[in-house]
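In line with agreed milestones, the collection of sequences with tokenised folds has grown. A representative record is reproduced below.
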Amino acid sequence: FFPPGMEKLIVCTHKRPNALCRLICFPWAGGGTSQLAQWSTLLSNSIEVLCVRLPGRETRLNEPFAKDMTSVVNEVTSVLLEELQEKPFAFFGHSFGSYLSFAVALHLKEKYGLEPVHLFSSGAHAPNSDAARSIKRIPTPKDEEILAYIQKVGGTPPELLHNKDIRKHVVLTFKEDIRVLQTFFFEKAEIDIPLSCDITCFNGSEDVPYELQAWQELTSGDTSFYKLPGGHFYLLEHSNEIFLTKHITRCIENAGL
């Protein structure tokens, strides 16, 4: 049984109490848990998949959206702390989720001396890069700009966007997530090298180029980079899902747990 607060925050479609490691997945802006939670069917039985569900969506539809990155980090940390202390864990985040996962990893390391065995980042800049810092200065996009962007990059089933209420909610959720992202301040000078785990970055070959080299300054572990065929949502292509989940399984199993 999940402790209180866990059912709300976490989706786990296959509970694996004997797993050696947990993979905590953080979805993209405007996204829910349905796609990444399904990875449990593709990963080895030694890994239990937990997907983070933020307020304002799915079963948390009636809750107010998170105010800022700190409140997201605090909720994830307080709900998951016992689980994270109990057995090894790895993080996977795509786009907005990549920044979320890094913010949580940073907090866990600073406050509790805990860190993931591996951090997997997808479709995002290194959080200490100029490109990531410039996100804070982007003016809030208009609803129609957000909708055009969502339609262009994919990731949301088009039939959902035909429904006016759903469309409005998807746009609002995306806007609120971007607002959270803009409250995330990470200045490299605060800590020498915050992490020691290995970091792997995945990206779609047709997506915009990301500033990734700066990840190397954030860990004393190894950093590696993979481009997979496709655009921003390359990870929803089945062949890429197979590659990602195999690669993630291998990295976790090689982490010497």
About this structure: Residues 142 and 175 are 9 Å apart (CA to CA). Residues 6-254 form a domain with the Rossmann fold fold (CATH 3.40.50.1820).
